[in-house]
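Q: What changes when acetyl coenzyme *A is included in the input?
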Amino acid sequence: ILRSQIVGSGSYLPSRIVTNAELASKVDTSDDWIVERTGIRQRHIAADGETTSDLATIAAERALASAGLKGSDVDLLIVATATPDNTFPATATKVQSRLGMTGGAAFDMQAVCSGFIFAMATADNFIKAEQARTALVIGAETFSRILDWEDRGTCVLFGDGAGAMVLRGSWEKGGNQDRGILSTHLHSDGRHYGLLHVDGGPSSTQTVGHLRMEGKEVFRHAVTNLAQVVGEALRANDLSAADIDWVVPHQANRRILESTAKKLGLSMDRMVVTVDQHANTSAASIPLAFHSAVSDGRLNKGDLVVMEAMGGGFTWGSALVRL
Ligand code: ACO
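A: The predicted holo structure follows.
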């Protein structure tokens, strides 16, 4: 059967690092509070004028280079983002032109923190339907632009960054020893709009708006939904938690990762954790974490990896991949 294999990855973080101590000089918070509640120690913040498409383009160029491919080899480009450069056109079309890709299709995917999983699932289905052969899937965000820097309950949690993966179709035998994406699982429940949303937009307020969140409620739903959607992926492939080599989770908060691991009966040593360094970069967090674990040699060919995310909407999802 036709499987989408991950043949390259790359990432980019803006050069400016903002520590918890620096934030504590601007809002009423402390390094201790932030580290204890979230595990976050620092975040990268885009420079003035540095946009989501700038971050996305660099991550994409690095992913293509690691795959030994050029922009013109790509026939599907998806940018998962909740912080596009402009209301339209899609940030993906800006990235497309900068990569020298003129054919195929480029569009954005909006599922906030789950965006990368939604984009990956979409690309996988295009590949399996033989409507694309080489897909570039990018998660890129500049959440610093939609934060209320006076709300200490949210502004300490997020950062900017981008990550990318190149997916390519390959004919495999069929079964859970195949290399490539084994399955993807997506969910949404729009009843929870109020718990995590941006209070602006072109059609409602004609402003960009700010992120608003009920942290405790989001936490509770996240742990339940993430454990459910990882279980769903394992059952669909006749696998159990013991078969998982690595979890590459969306990086929202260390306590969410710990609670999810516990619910699944997994040890924290099998979770890739970057939230301490990057904070929550929304749709960029999974490819950023993935690429860092590929680069330091933790992720290797043949490993069974589960990626999972949950975000505003609510949206949540998982992807089970044999590298
Ligand atoms: N520094 C110091 N004190 C703070 C800060 C801060 N940055 N933020 C809030 N507080 C205070 C509050 O004002 C409150 O004070 P009070 O008791 O005097 O009213 C106290 O700390 C406790 O606030 P809570 O919001 O109840 O704290 P909680 O333990 O729930 O931690 C947190 C807050 C870290 C946001 C937690 O709810 C959480 O992690 N939620 C998950 C949210 C998340 O990660 N969302 C990301 C997007 S969704 C996703 O990606 C899964």
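Observations recorded in class: The CA atoms of residues 201 and 208 lie 5 Å apart.
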